[in-house]
Description:
Elements: H1 6-35, E1 37-48, E2 53-61, E3 64-68, H2 81-88, E4 95-100, E5 108-116, H3 119-124
Antiparallel strand pairs: 1-2, 1-4, 2-3, 4-5
Amino acid sequence: MKNFKFGHYFLVFFIILFGSLHIRGVRIQNKIKTLGKDIVVKYVKKERFPKTTDFYFSYYLNDTLITTSGSGIKYSILNSDKETQSIDNLKINSFYLAKFNSDYPKTIIVDPDSRITDTLEIEKFGFQISKKQ
């Protein structure tokens, strides 16, 4: 049996670290999906970087506006064509249905296919809709 060198221990450590972080993320997503409540969020910004794109959504929690990029929306090679098309159809300053769990206030799961246009529903979740006269 070979002796492990420092590099081997280093590699094993990082595999365990990233594996546990991935498992934690999956558990949080599952908890939000199963125990989360529906909220209305506003799509406020899209930032493109060389290898990734961040989608920012805002929502009210206890009369405090929270903006997060932890929305479950991301471009991925694993996305279907329908998912990619839904993400491309997101409109800035539009409202969407999302799942939320108060245990993880910076993480939400946005449904890009469920755009909300009912002003009463939007205002119920703390947003002010200015009426044009």
